[in-house]
Amino acid sequence: GLSEARVGEMLRSLTTSANPTLASYAKLDGIHLRITAKAESEDTAQDLIRTMENQVKTILGEHIWGVDSDTLEGAVGELLLKKGLTLAAMESCTGGLLAATLTNVPGSSAYFRGSIVSYSDESKISSGVDPTRIRRYAAISLEVAQAMASAARKNMSADVGVGITGVAGPSESQDKAVGTIFIGIDDGQSLNVIAPTYPGNRQRIRQAATTLALVELRKTLLNR
Question: What's this model's pTM, rounded to 2 decimal places?
């Protein structure tokens, strides 16, 4: 939820440090921060790193989803397990990429019920999306993303449902810009929908949508 520029502003007091040093890199799964220290021994260098790491954590708080080799899908899985919740999805433009990413985590069957890939209007309707909603708002819309999340949650008896629809390539929609994404989340207590727009080719847009869905799922789970 933060831009690289915003992270830089928040960490300005630390980025001027000569030892250890702090650098940021924008990647598909978020802003990566690298702390590097020089010392006469490894233990001393690790102490310097830990001190700065704690300062970073104090400043950024819950915006940090992992350290070292942690993954975003792993962080979501940990929260689901910790809270005893299950997850289901309905995907359109991502074509099952969210499901593939979630199941990269060993033991994900304990919380992930599955995903319905509903690429066409007909498959959305057969999977539980109200056809009048598609006719009224179009398949690529906030309202349909919301309906997809609720249908996935209901169809697979899950605690949380997520729906993703959007335009990953120029052949998919004439009235929405390429890179338009709608993500809906239904956790049984509230319905949340976000609508970002991403530049890039089909694969990059699909990956960005998947990553953002995981980010928003993490936020939802933290607030339950």
Answer: 0.87
